[in-house]
Amino acid sequence: MTKILVVALDACDPDTIRAMAADGEVPTLARLLERSASATTRNPYGLFVGSLWSSFFTARTAARTGFHCWEEVDTKTYERRLTSPLEIRGTPFWETLSAAGKRVAVLDVPHSKAKPLNGVMVCEYACHDRHFGFHTSPPALAKEIETEIGLTPILTAEPHLVRDWAPDDYLHREGDHRTADEERALTHGLVDGIELKTQLSTQLLAKGDWDLFLTVYGESHSIGHQQWHLHDPEHRSYVAALGEELDPIRSVYRQLDTAIGEHLALAEEDTTVFVLLSHGMGPRYEGSHLLHELLRLLDQAASEGFQGSSLKQFAKRKVSGMPALASGVLPFLRRRLARNPLPAVPNWATPEQRARQRYFLSPNNFVFGGVRINLEGREPSGVVKRADYEAVCDQLTEDLLALVNVETGEPVVRAVSRTSDHYDREADDSLPDLLIDWGRSGPIETVWSPKTGVVHGPDTHWRTGDHRPDGLLLASGPGFTPGTALPDMDVVDFGASLSAMLGVTLDDDTDGKPLDWATASSRTPARSE
């Protein structure tokens, strides 16, 4: 009978793990990299920051889960509102397994809520994302965990408090940014939390005869956001003295490596083991804090033509020679801004502004910007006629690609794509129409184009790291040949594949399909070592 163990590391950067494995710092993962079958995991394009895990457990595309960001603009009122995972559409695949009589244990899958299962479920014990507070199924398990193991110092701090931000965003941070002592306290708290989570996870693994045991570690997500600048010497906020003393990323990753080893030690010989590094991390350089003002100015330029400064009028005459123009203008702008710094632009619009503009910022976390077209017949005060939709998108794409980072001289935007190029849209969705892939070579704080002029806003956010799209799956056990490269896999297929391995088919209202390696007829015995 098939048994499956999944240990997932939320937002644990695959490239960093490979480098640490080569240096001998993560011996368990080094062995897995050498001896497992592996696949690159492809996450929802442009929307993966908020929708990766909901697509993972519902086996639905990001366009069909109804949840892609922690906030959105209400499509009926233009008002900004907070969202909730309770709005996620679709059935978690472990509920389908449970209903089919499989024994399942599910720990800390982001954006999930505990429901009765044929087994156990633990939510927000050591999870980066906080929505409902620490809770379990059965409910009495939460008290047992708190009494016998204890709560983690960071991710289960204030365990029953509902907050809009993750615990790692505000703990050990009194000011806008952490002091050296606060940085140390956060790192040590997350490392200690991994030890407690491993006690909980391995105890539950040892107690049950599980068909599926799925545990997710959130500390890799937290440390990547908060302390990437102490890992990356090229980061603008790198502190050499502290970074040489304490590399938080490596400290957390080493502890996670130990945690994986403790789980593997409990796995039976015929258990199929998956280790999932859900997606990557890197420095947080993006321009979302400028997007509202950029869109306002571009809309104004489209409606009224070039207005304002003589520099814009000059650009109007020379706009066809954009690259040469930029190279000539930027030194002048740098000198002028050095003498007279600009005030920061507003980073959010009012509902009234959104209703008037042809397009507006559509919340999409930060890695990819989002733009919603104010479309007639869809938005309540739509001003763009459906016949003009394509032309408006084309022109806005061209204008966004013309934005230049004044500090570096490089494009602000790497690419702009239509959400409909990647997803089958639903009529009532709140998704952006355009997805902006920011240029991430450095901070984006002062931007210029012929149509917008200079737009300035310092990026003062305390998070110094942010996500990268792809992840890594390591698979070992019956049916997987060590060292082989499996085809790239879409995250929506993972739940369907695990279910198929256990002889269960998900319902027809899912998008994920079992991969070849999940079907018994296509699986080959593992080589003995």
UniProtKB/TrEMBL annotation:
InterPro entries: Alkaline_phosphatase_core_sf, Phosphodiest/P_Trfase. It comes from the Bacteria. Residues 509-529 are annotated as: Disordered. Keywords: Hydrolase. Residues 519-529 have a biased composition (Polar residues). One of its GO terms (molecular function) is hydrolase activity. This is Predicted phosphohydrolase or phosphomutase, AlkP superfamily. It comes from Amycolatopsis xylanica.
